[in-house]
Every structure is written in structure tokens, then in C-alpha cells.
Amino acid sequence: MLRIYPGVEGVRGVTFRLEGRVVGPWVAELREACEKVLEETRGLALDLSEVMYASRDGVALLLELKAQGVELSGCSPFLSQELKAADV
User: Fold this and answer.
1) Position with higher pLDDT, 70 vs 42
2) pLDDT value at position 49?
3) What single-letter DSSP state applies at residue 9?
4) Strand, helix or coil for residue 69
């Protein structure tokens, strides 16, 4: 399960706080939520400090979002390693 807490708007855009696992149907849900914000605002950041796990598809989405300028913060050592390994 993945919870996406409503975005907090700041000077640099919107920040979503994520909690849980970025897997299965929640990958598509996160993509949809992020695309909506990216279309409407000037920036997006994801607080990943409460994300316990991301599947291969979840990691791919996070890297795709990062490439679009989305700031990823609060990554656990495990998630950081997964992102680095996939971003080769």
C-alpha cells in the first residue's frame, strides 16, 4: 500500500509525502498524481522518508520523475542504492 499525502505548496512548488511501498497499482497511482501536479504547477518534490520499498517499476518511475526535475528527498539507504543501481 502507498499513501500519498496531499501536496504542501511552497515557493518551489508542491511537495508530496509518500508512505508505504511503491509497487503494483500504486506505481500508476503515483504517476497520475505527479503528472497532474506537473501540468498545473511550477515544481514538484517527493518526500520519500517513509517509503519502505519500491519495485523495479516503482524505481523506474522515480528515476523518470527525477529526470523531469522532480526533487526526491529523504531516501532510505536501501532506496538510494536501488535508484543508483537502476540509473546506470
Assistant:
1) 70
2) 95
3) E
4) coil
